[in-house]
Amino acid sequence: MTKALVTGCAGFIGSHLTQRLLNEGVTVIGVDGFLDNYDVAAKLRNLAEIGNHPAFTFHSTMLQTQRWKEWLDGVDVVYHLAALPGVRNSWGKAFTDYVNHNILATQMLLEACLQLPKPPVVVVSSSSSVYGTMQGTFTDESSPLRPVSPYGVTKEAMEQICQVYVKAYGLPVTMLRYFTVYGPRQRPDMAFHRFFRQMMKGEPVVIYGDGQQSRDFTYVADAVQANLLAARHALPGEIFNVGGDREIKLLDVLNIMGGLLNVTPNLSFQSGPAGDSLRTCADIQLAQNRLGFRPQVPLEEGLRLQFVDMRAQAKG
Ligand code: UGA
């Protein structure tokens, strides 16, 4: 594997993945449309950290401009991370944009790959939000899909359209269901980013609901590793959960964060926007067995790394 296309290369996971690929000697074509879910200055900073690497070509444009011939030329693997993310903003008029960026743009990519004499391997970013609120102990990939947000519905539909192309044409597409990824460069709308920022400013930490909701938070480098493993080992149509070291309640995470900043967080409980899952907990056995995936970064260490990064940004 020597040449990759990364869609969403300036975003949170995409920028880390791009750096990792470049470090491994892969030539990377990066496309990013600068959607307004992640502020432009932060994305430019991510790109600056990738730097002027001779093996990196960046296209600042939306996938809908469809310059696939140029982007896919000689590419072995496509890492498709471009999307409109976030569960809480996907209601109302915004849904059209979610459909556009998460379903329609993905279908355009699949069609473009199909036109090539040898289609590349495509690793598509999906989400634990396809499951909704989880029942039982762990959720494996065969668990029922019951999204509780319009965003989750678009991710489910995105998976379905991929499966249709796999079945009809054997297109080598695989899907990764990430569980709430965190770490340096986390999207500003996401919980840890907001909590650290609020605590650093001495502001109240806004908790949606009672803080008893739980997540299987996944460190960004582990999500990146899952992408590389999937590109190497996954079969067409396979779907994998990508989770972290354990399930934990939000209030327990805030205790760890307070310890890092040496403060007692001042918590402000508010009724949360609709669309929130109460609980996620990944069964990652399939990814372990088939891909050799094993999360490497425990939550405590990942939180420390995110805090160090955010403190440096705040000073810089
Ligand atoms: C995240 C991402 O935003 C989705 O794009 C992704 O698909 C999803 O993870 C996933 O992996 O499935 P979410 O789990 O809501 O969604 O992640 P956070 O935004 O980090 O929120 C975690 C929890 O903290 C949620 O229960 C949320 O309600 C809560 N929260 C968030 C607060 O209490 N206060 C805030 O200010 C922000």
Automatic annotation (TrEMBL):
Domain NAD-dependent epimerase/dehydratase: 4-243
InterPro entries from the UniProt entry: Epimerase_deHydtase (IPR001509), NAD(P)-bd_dom_sf (IPR036291)
Family: Belongs to the NAD(P)-dependent epimerase/dehydratase family.
Protein name stated in the entry: Nucleotide sugar epimerase
The species this protein was found in: Brevibacillus choshinensis
Lineage: Bacteria, Bacillati, Bacillota, Bacilli, Bacillales
